[in-house]
Amino acid sequence: MEYIDLRSDTVTKPSEAMRRAMMEAEVGDDVYGEDPTVNKLQNKIAGMFQKEAALFVPSGTMGNEICIKLHTQPGDEIIVEQDSHIFVYETAAPSLLAGVQMLPLPGESGALTAEQIKKSIRPSVYYLPRTKLICIENTHGRSAGSIIPINEIRKIYEIAVTQNIKMHLDGARLWNASVASQIPVHEYAKYFDSISVCFSKGLGAPIGSMIIGSHQVIEDALKYRKIFGGGMRQVGILAAAALYAVENNIERLAIDHDNAKHFTQILSKIKKLKINPENIQTNMVIIDVSGTGKSQTQVLKTLKEQGVLLTPERDASVRAVMHLDVNRNQVINAANIIHSLFD
Ligand code: TLP
After folding, report:
1. Could you identify the atom of ligand 1 that is nearest to the CA of residue 209?
2. What would the CATH number be for the domain defined by 252-342?
3. Distance, CA 141 to ligand 1 centroid (Å)?
4. 59 Cα nearest atom in ligand 1
5. Which protein residue has the closest C-alpha to ligand 1 atom 4?
6. CB under 8 Å to 263, separation ≥6 — which residues?
7. How many A from CA of 85 to the centre of ligand 1?
């Protein structure tokens, strides 16, 4: 069966043109810093974000974990949002790899407030952990790809600098936030000591993420990338895919955002589903299916039988993600299939 695969924007396959760019890539041994395509990509991304340097890493998870490691000492505490990827989906890696404790705070649509952060920073007393890092995820995956308001980020940053606390951005989908808010990525980047962005989500590359920061951050990241087993060799074939993605697939994210709105409009007519069209800011849609009389698992199974793939979300919800391998017709078909099953 030909599925309409809306499980994630990670499911995209490299296009013909992207594969050609990969095939033609100049390569070298990147552990020696000699891969020209990797170097080109790193310089380009550092420039886009107006930071000193950047480092190519295999995954978004590794990007986050390296950054947490380099900003902290074992026994420190880091502040995270309670539904963030770092807290929920990285298998407690910060405690394992960096030996830190995570303090999870509840956000409003994924956004923490400066007030909340202020109250959660530990006073400097010897028997308390030291608050060393604040992590923000933008867009926020478990809040349907919501955009974290830049004004609040700025306020959090102002508190962080006065307390000597570092700021890390999980920007796996910062490209989506930037296209939807029309705020350039370098504007967001101003408030962070380290940033991790992904090429393998909405941008459609098969693999790859980038850590961005100061020379010192990237020097430390290089060491921990090696320690975590992420040093790669003739990896220019992957950097070429990422370069192609950055050059061709950023602006088109607006199409995915528009598809998400259209999909939501069709589904919002179904009384048994709970979905808030106003919450759809980028490429994700979260649908509460508790009113269908079926469990989340049954809903996913029934949809799969009809050719539509979605993923489970928290409580009784399911997630649909728009991406460059689903066009408007497929999005409408998927919505109509859901309509016919649950109306
Ligand atoms: N997210 C995946 C799943 O792991 C949940 C998805 O389908 O959304 N940060 C954020 C905000 C992410 O959403 C993800 C992946 C990552 C980091 C990790 O990236 P990878 O998979 O490259 O390690």
Report:
1. 22
2. 3.90.1150.10
3. 8
4. 22
5. 89
6. 285, 320, 322, 331, 332, 334, 335
7. 7
pLDDT reading at 336 higher than 90 = yes
Q: What is the pLDDT of residues 119-139, one digit of tens each?
A: 999 999 999 999 999 999 999
Asked whether 8 lines ligand 1 (CB < 6 A), one says yes
Is residue 226 classed as helix, strand or coil in its secondary structure?
A: helix
Tens of pLDDT, residues 189-238: 999 999 999 999 999 999 999 999 999 999 999 999 999 999 999 999 99
Strands across the sheet with 194-198, in order?
53-57, 209-213, 194-198, 166-171, 131-137, 77-81, 101-105
Atom of ligand 1 nearest to the CA of 137: 11
Q: What are phi and psi of 198, to 5 degrees?
A: -115, 145
Residue 57: what are its φ and ψ, rounded to 5°? -130, 160
Mean pLDDT, residues 108-129 taken together = 97
- Would you say the CB of residue 259 lies under 6 angstroms from ligand 1? no
Q: What is the domain partition of the chain in residue ranges?
A: 16-248, 252-342
Q: What is the mean pLDDT of residues 290-300?
A: 94
Structure tokens at 127: 């028997």
> What is the Cα–Cα distance from 8 to 320, expressed in whole angstroms?
7
Over 90: is that where the pLDDT of 278 sits? no
The answer, yes or no, to whether any atom of ligand 1 lies below 6 A from the CB of 202, is no
**Ligand 1 pocket check for 139: Cβ under 6 Å:** no
- CATH pick for 16-248 out of 3.30.70.2740, 3.30.460.10, 3.40.190.10, 3.40.640.10: 3.40.640.10
Contact indicator for 292, 299 with CB cutoff of 8 Å: yes
Q: Is residue 81 within 6 Å of ligand 1 at its C-beta?
A: no
Q: For the chain, where are the E strands, in sequence order?
A: 4-5, 53-57, 77-81, 101-105, 131-137, 166-171, 194-198, 209-213, 284-288, 308-309, 311-312, 317-321
Q: Decide: 58 in ligand 1 pocket, CB within 6 A.
A: no
What tokens does 338 get? 């859901």
Question: Structure pTM?
Answer: 0.97
Q: Are 314 and 340 in contact (CB under 8 A)?
A: no
Go through the chain and tell me how many residues it has: 343
Cα-flanking dihedrals φ and ψ of residue 33, to 5°? 70, 25
